[in-house]
Amino acid sequence: MYMYDFTYRRPKTLDEAAALWGEFDSPSFVSGGHTLIPTMKNRLAAPDVLIDLRAIPELKGIRREGDRLLIGAATTHYETSTSDLVKDAIPALAALAGSIADPQVRYVGTMGGSVANNDPSADYPAAVLSLGADVVTSQRTIPAEQFFDGLFGTVLEEGEIILHFSFPIPDSAGYAKLCSQASRYPVAGSFVSRTGDTVRVAVTGAGNDGVFRWSAAEDALAREFAASALDGLLPEADDMIADLNGSGAYRAHLVGVVTRYAVENPGTAIVR
Amino acid sequence: MTEVTITVNGAPQTHDVEDRTLLVHFLRDHAGLTGTHVGCDTTQCGACTVHLDGRAVKSCTVLAVAADGGAVTTIEGLAEGDTLSDLQQAFKDNHGLQCGFCTPGMVMAGTDLIRRYGGALDEETVREQLEGNICRCTGYTNIVKAVLDAAGKYRAKQQA
Ligand code: FES
Ligand code: FES
Asked: CB–CB of B23/B38 below 8 Å?
């Protein structure tokens, strides 16, 4: 399927990218393009210019700064999954990156692109929200708590560019998901992180409103960090996505299952 | 139109293309290399897999303009003269193809996989790592055998 015609640009600086954004009527930023290009093929998006952010130095690289891990927005899933810095600081994040889609997609898709798109079934939003990362943009620093704004929505302004993610390093974290057999997107995924007495559980793939924190599970796990602490707890079925993968009640049940797996398997990503 | 130069199988190819041209169309329609297939066009089947700057990517989801200045290897670039690459030969020896539609993508993904793991592969890993390539004919068994066969040869060569 041919996409509508557009112009492609690859600026080398943030200033150049900002200037390009102003020059066109319906611009779009792109990095790996592994969500955007398929969307454009389906003609569900028709930007008149694609501004490729991958040549801008501020979006590149992975580094450790004290007790934080900084990952550039243009970092591919492959780079994140194989980085010794990431594996050492937050092994579950490296494992999550290595569980996205397939190897060819992981060579190209980027963390910034995935998070900016906030697909309700994407993996990264769960990690960003659970770990309480800061989203550092060309204009400001946005705490994860305030960043996501409903299905495919974020608080990013027109022309605002994600530069990097700044992750606090947790004491432990784990991720688990059950994927659709056809699309391999999670039908329910849960990222559980623990720092001191604080436990944060972020769920993707299941919520009506996109990624969300399951606070009842957080409270229970903060009292006792064990899978059994979740016995009898489920999120509201009415708040879950109901589609051909399953009903709201099925999804709510799955959220319980994957959250238990995530608690029991720290430092990794369990994929079913 | 944008002038795009991509080194394809070692030789620079320069063509004027629309910015919306996909890498797979650059290869098939402009460079005339039709070994790379389009199966799904939705980033799922892997039939379009080529190596871009040494890494297996789905060329139906990469823009030719974004690959400008890069180097691509396609299925046509694996053999040396009449001598097939180890993985190509292994597909033949293990009956790893039937209709052959998925095969170029399988071979390009498999070649990348063997290199990425230094040939240290087992059946489970091969199956998991070929998740991005779909075959409608073989049931995968002989494809997995072919990859393991070539991975063994890769290891043997590393040790030699
Ligand atoms: S044609 Fe590219 S993945 Fe199927
Ligand atoms: S051999 Fe026919 S699709 Fe794989």
From this structure: no
Instruction: Select from A1, A7, A184 the Cβ nearest to the Cβ of B19.
Output: A7
Task: Looking at the structure, give the CATH architecture of the domain made up of residues B2-77.
Answer: Roll (3.10)
Cβ of B56 under 8 Å from any chain A Cβ?
Answer: yes
Q: Is A5 on the interface with B (CB under 8 A)?
A: yes
Q: Which CATH number applies to B86-159?
A: 1.10.150.120
> How distant is the Cα of A43 from the closest Cα of chain B, in angstroms?
13
**Any A CB within 8 A of B49 CB:** yes
Ligand 1 atom with least separation from CA of B46:
3
Which residue has tokens 């409608």?
A: B136
Q: What is the pTM of this model?
A: 0.95
Whether A8 sits inside 8 A of B49 (CB atoms) is no
- What domains can be seen in chain A, in order of their start residue? 7-52 (3.30.43.10), 58-168 (3.30.465.10), 172-271 (3.30.390.50)
* C-alpha B73 – ligand 2 centre gap (Å): 21
Where are chain B's structural domains?
2-77, 86-159
Query: Is the reported ipTM for this assembly greater than 0.90?
Result: yes
- Show pLDDT as tens, one digit a residue, over chain A (272 residues): 678 999 999 999 999 999 999 999 999 999 999 999 999 999 889 999 999 999 999 999 999 999 999 999 999 999 999 999 999 999 999 999 999 999 999 999 999 999 999 888 899 999 999 999 999 999 999 999 999 998 899 999 999 999 999 999 999 999 999 998 877 889 999 999 999 999 999 999 999 999 999 999 999 999 999 999 999 999 999 999 998 888 999 999 999 999 999 999 999 999 99
Is the CB of B28 inside a 6 Å radius of any atom of ligand 1?
no
Looking at CA atoms only, how far is residue A152 from chain B in angstroms? 20
Long-range contacts of A36-44 (CB under 8 A, 24+ apart): A36/A113, A36/A117, A37/A3, A37/B43, A37/B61, A37/B62, A37/B63, A38/B42, A38/B43, A38/B61, A40/A3, A40/A4, A40/A6, A41/A1, A41/A2, A41/A3, A41/B41, A41/B42, A42/A1, A43/A1, A43/A3, A43/A4
Q: Which residues pair with A63 in a beta bridge?
A: A70
